[in-house]
Every structure is written in structure tokens, then in C-alpha cells.
Prior knowledge:
This protein starts with a strand and ends in a 7-residue tail after the last helix. The protein has 12 helices and 8 strands.
Amino acid sequence: MRTPIVAGNWKMYKTVAEAVKYVHELRAMVPDVTGVQVVLAPTFTALHPVAEAARGSRIAIAAQDVHWEREGAFTGEVSATMAREAGAEYAIVGHSERRTLFGENDASVNRKVSAVFAAGMTPIACIGETLDQRERNETFDVLDQQITKGFDGLTTDQVGRLVIAYEPVWAIGTGRNATPQQASEAHGHIRTRLRQWFGAEAAAQCRILYGGSVKPGNMAELAGQPDVDGALVGGASLDPRGFYEIVSRSRPTAV
């Protein structure tokens, strides 16, 4: 049985003080919810304070991105090793905003996934199609390419420990989420490909999250889909009460 993950990606929001206050509010709520892993991804400036505020709670911390090198002359970058030292247990890589705004691609995602594993953390690797690609019926072809190039060279053990976030780009921050059927089809396709290319055990263990305008009102139905193992939440994660509602509805039994 795969334990669902609900990860809140705060993007470029919240000062250190705001982030710490949020954690104190959320950690008072989450003990009521069992059977789900709660993850918060603050900005880099708040990473260590948030990790300290969450210490001893059921909340894990993620970096929003990492560089693939351990150290070097890369102004403005943060390595996976540095994020791990600051308290991160997970790292988001390949988010659509990183791909579209900062030119990242499957090759850089592949290097970052390997770097996150090497640092002793768990990657949350994002894949998904644009609206144009979906309207051209290229969704599955795009996912196949992102899987083959982004996860090239990973061992079956690593794929089993990997967290994949399927995020249709056309649904991120638009308020237009994929229907449960669309999410189920995409997640099912991803798991089928993992089974074909990395083996049944790895495919069964890998958790696949849905990301794209997730809200309290649609989480339970999404969680009821057989291959949806939680969510990567953007804007709706900025309010602790709303995020708690999503977490509480993230288990299949909640439907």
C-alpha cells in the first residue's frame, strides 16, 4: 500500500516569519490525519527556519529546486547537499515553471534527480503536457519522452523510491484542473510505462501525485482514482486551514 503524499509548493511566497507562523498553525492540525505524508516546500530563505519549526512533527520539508552539482561557481544556485543540510528531505525538480520560465529540460531534470538521490533525499519529479500538446493528442507521447529522458539511468530501486508529480501545464494556477478521468488516464499511463521499463515492483512502489489547481473541493475525488497517490499543491497550500482540508481528503477512504 502506497502512502499518499500531499506536498505544498509555496513558490515565491511567504517571508521567514510568515512561513514559521504557518508551520506552527499547521502542525497543530495534522496530528488528526493519519496515513498521509505532509510535505512543505518553502523558499530557500525559509528552508532552515521552516525545518526547525517542523522538527518533531509529522511535516516533512522539501526544496523547490536544486542544482545538479554538489558545489561550484554557479552564482545563485543551491545544491542538493546544501538543501539536505538545511533540513530538506525532498526536492522538487522539473516543475513546469522551471521548464517554461528558466529553460530547464528533461536532460537537466535527469541530472537533478540523480543529485537528489545522491544527497540522500527523495526527488519529486514533475512531468506533464501543455494545452497545445493535449489538444494535439500528444499527452502520452510527451509523458513517454519525459519519463525516458528524465529518468534515464535510474535503478529499479530508485524508481520505486521516486515520487512523480503529473502536472498538466494547462491546469497550473489557472483554476482549470484535469477531471478525475483525465488524471486517472495519465496516471495509469505513467504507471504502465514504469512497469514496462523499470519492472512491476518499482511501478507498484512509485508514488504518482497530481498537480494542477488542486483544492479542497476536488481532492477527495482525485484521491479516489487508483493510481493517484496524493497531490502537489500550489496556491491552495498558502493557507494552512485550506491545505489541511486538502490533506484530510487525500486518502482513498475519504471519498
